Amino acid sequence: MPSTRKAISALTQLRKSIDIRTLEPIIFYSGKNDELHIHLSKEDRGELIIKSLSKKMITVREVTLLENDSKLSWKQNFKGLKIIVPTSIDEELNDQQAIIKIKF
Q: Vertex 73, ends 71 and 78: CA angle to 5°?
């Protein structure tokens, strides 16, 4: 009798191991000049790509955590804004929701 399990493709396995996610997050204007806030869920860790914040739209100057101003590793190009959110931030924030502050 043939197995009913589907084989996991190599591409699927690679995506899971790399942990890159493309987000369409809820973005809030903070009320301050040139600043946006992005609220992350617990699953939003690793390399995150936000297409709506590409260089075509806006030029980013700084990316930090709102709660403690810790600098996050980031890179912006014409495809979007790539931010590295380490899993260690959960310990830093004592399980509070992570909010990214973006200055432009």
A: 125
Of residues 94, 48, 46, the one with CA closest to residue 38: 48
pTM of the complete model beyond 0.85? no
For residues 53 and 43, which has the higher predicted lDDT (pLDDT)? 53
**How many folded domains does the chain comprise?**
1
**Amino acid found at 8:** I
Task: Annotate 50-89 with DSSP letters as a single string.
Answer: EGGG-TTT----EEEETTT--B-EEEEETTEEEEEE-TTH
Residue 46 lies in a domain: yes
CATH of the domain at 55: 2.60.40.1180
